Amino acid sequence: MEALLEHFITQSVAYSLLAVMLVAFLESLALVGLILPGTVMMAGLGALIGSGQVDFYQAWGAGIIGCLLGDWISFWLGRRFKGPLHRWSFMKKNKALLDKTEHALHRHSMFTILIGRFVGPTRPLVPMVAGMLDLPLAKFIVPNIIGCLFWPPLYFMPGILAGAAIDIPADMQSSSFKWLLLGVALLIWVAAWLCWRWWRSGKSGTDSLTSFLPRGRLHWLAPAMLVVAIGSFVALQMHPLMPIYLKILWKVLTGQH
């Protein structure tokens, strides 16, 4: 799959957009998205956007089309084959995740469809399960369209940020700045993940990391890491290369690259 996408991307802009649509489609398609490294692929495509090889708005449009096609086909498959799907051995092996998704759809269908689009394990399941539950199309389509509008740029963004950094001229001694960007990005990601675990610690069960990150430790670790991440981000704004980086990023996001 990755070799095929690389071939497409090196041929023309049209093939690059087709690759974006294909990745978004497969990442959204029922069950296929569970085994496809779509997040990594979307970030890779985002790097092409950040380096100016693909237009941001064209890629966004292609991603929306792929999302919608994948979700709507998944919804139809769930409605059409709900009986066989319930009996399928793969579904029985993932019964816990399936039951959790069904429960969330029963309680908060529109919220679950919208948020499920941004959560890896549930993204390729929610539309199919919604179809299996015979959810009315009117309840499915509105949050689904909203989610598909905002999902592509969010998943492109890590690659876009990296691609824009690559475009900083090497003769400006930018290597240290690029490493600094990476370090701050990792700090922000870790802080966000710890805050998420802290928020979820009182609502979910235990997992393999609970013994290392119990709720009591998260009470101080998550806020402390958040303060460090915010401080690092603010300090980064003072770097002399930051205005150049922001100018490159602005050109990418406004289609001027």
What is the mean predicted local confidence, pLDDT?
83
Low-confidence stretches: none
- The run of helices and strands is HHHHHHHHHHHHHH
Helix content: over 70%
Shape: flat
Structural class: mainly alpha
Radius of gyration: 20 Å
Q: Report how far apart the termini are.
A: 28 Å
Question: Could you explain how this protein is built, in words?
Answer:
The chain has 257 residues and is an all-alpha fold. Helices cover 77% and strands 0% of the residues. The chain has helices spanning 2-11, 13-28, 32-35, 38-50, 56-80, 82-87, 89-93, 95-107, 109-116, 126-132, 137-166, 175-200, 215-236, 242-253. α5 (56-80) packs parallel to α10, α11 crosses α14 and α12 runs antiparallel to α13. It is flat, with a radius of gyration of 20 Å.
Q: Could you outline the blueprint of secondary structure elements for this entry?
A:
Layout (H helix, E strand, L loop, with lengths): L1 H10 L1 H16 L3 H4 L2 H13 L5 H25 L1 H6 L1 H5 L1 H13 L1 H8 L9 H7 L4 H30 L8 H26 L14 H22 L5 H12 L4
Name some characteristics of this structure.
flat, mainly alpha, 77% helix, 0% strand, 257 residues
Question: Could you give a short description of this structure?
Answer:
With 257 residues, the protein is mainly alpha-helical. Helices cover 77% and strands 0% of the residues. α2 (13-28) packs antiparallel against α4 (38-50).
